[in-house]
Amino acid sequence: MTSKTVLIVYAHQSAGSFNAAVKDAAVDELKKQGCRVIVSDLYDMNFKTTATEDDITGAVMNPNHFCYGNETMLAWQEGRLASDIVDEHKKLKEADLVIFQFPMYWFSVPAIMKGWMDRVLTLGFAYTLEKCYSEGIFRDKKAMLSFTTGSHETMFSSNGINGDMNVTLWPIQNGVLNYCGFQVLAPQIFWAPTHLSPEAREGLLESWRTRLQGLLNEAPLTFPPADIFDKGKGFQLKPEVREKQADSPFGLTVGQHLEKPLPPQSQMKAGV
Amino acid sequence: MTSKTVLIVYAHQSAGSFNAAVKDAAVDELKKQGCRVIVSDLYDMNFKTTATEDDITGAVMNPNHFCYGNETMLAWQEGRLASDIVDEHKKLKEADLVIFQFPMYWFSVPAIMKGWMDRVLTLGFAYTLEKCYSEGIFRDKKAMLSFTTGSHETMFSSNGINGDMNVTLWPIQNGVLNYCGFQVLAPQIFWAPTHLSPEAREGLLESWRTRLQGLLNEAPLTFPPADIFDKGKGFQLKPEVREKQADSPFGLTVGQHLEKPLPPQSQMKAGV
């Protein structure tokens, strides 16, 4: 077995939290397998969250109209990015798998983790307009979300008050992870752990440990290959693919739903 | 006409940006109508983005397991929240309409704006488990997203490479704005303005100015009332509502899709 490197991007304020226990379980279990595990503990690092000119050493290209994407791409090419971004780039380059561990805040990642995404997934380094989705720069890497919710699972169903979790996950799993080319593993969702007994929480950790044993060999979620979209026609689905899909009772994905019912659990389970 | 107060939460680094021009157009046009306009210019304020113990003055309740929601609720009740949060609370209380103005980063708001949401929409002040969605604390206020994209409109369609924008908007418009009770106005989307000529951009600003003239009287997007979900049964749709919906070709919303096709444009247009 070749030794793999796993980067855990971790966002909880407290070492006494359930998120910390989940992260620690991942570190232990993956090390047992011989993995090298790197943790970016964002609160502990006091990780800078905002996308500003300070992310660039030296002069910016266009001080009158600072455009973060273009400016940081140039700084990356010229080796003038802030050192904390460079550090994360190095970890990301070495990682075979990236686990994002966080409590869900407002149907999304906490701001400090969004800041990591905004600043570390630099234009040029993590994606270009040509190299994205299935042709993305990180297509040989895997990534996954592992998170706790405040709401119960029933509330995040397609007839629950929060709506289908598959919909809520789409912008992050497709728009961030799949966009950069990552093979996206099924999310690990810990439903409302604060409402559980210590024993029930320990049970959740135990099933997480079990999953971790096979995690690196899991098949990823299904996303459409980039080449079924027509670059010359606004990156819309090619007519022949659309025709082929006509017989299916479901859309292709949550986002490419083609005015059909969403494919069930497509952002939650591999192979569906 | 009673004078209304509008809060613009604005996140762009540069006064020379198109986002700045959009924000300035809103300030001008709304003032012309006699509105009081307050701008929270997040980058300019160097707004703190991370949800940490520093948001609380004095001792925290549980230093071994710091839980941001509970700790800040207590601090809010006891008047011990950080002054920058208190300042935003004051603006929010006075506002009849909140406009979030930003460039879309990674299918969502920039981290600095997510930080505003994470920190300012305090448990107790902005929501409780009882007071949410249509029974939410801000149900007499309106809110909307106004943003620029990097991608063209065709790419964010239901057969485009980024998937349906209605899906991407759901977690923010439902999970943040509707959750707090806001009446959510249709988003103002400026598709890929950097790819346009200065004249075309001016045209976009002109239609924005036109929309602003009637903005405060617009009907909001449709979200289901909270009382159609059964609190005693995991906040799932009541069977009688589900039955009533059986004849419809569409689901209720993007999130409550009931395994049917999504209602077209429901996160983009009012009255659909």
TrEMBL record, chains A, B:
It comes from the Eukaryota. The keyword Nucleotide-binding does not apply. Its cofactor is FAD; Zn(2+). It is an enzyme of class 1 (oxidoreductase). GO terms for molecular function: dihydronicotinamide riboside quinone reductase activity; metal ion binding; NAD(P)H dehydrogenase (quinone) activity. It is found in: Cytoplasm. Keywords: Cytoplasm, FAD, Flavoprotein, Metal-binding, Oxidoreductase, Phosphoprotein, Zinc. The enzyme apparently serves as a quinone reductase in connection with conjugation reactions of hydroquinones involved in detoxification pathways as well as in biosynthetic processes such as the vitamin K-dependent gamma-carboxylation of glutamate residues in prothrombin synthesis. Belongs to the NAD(P)H dehydrogenase (quinone) family. This is Ribosyldihydronicotinamide dehydrogenase [quinone]. The gene is LOC113053277.
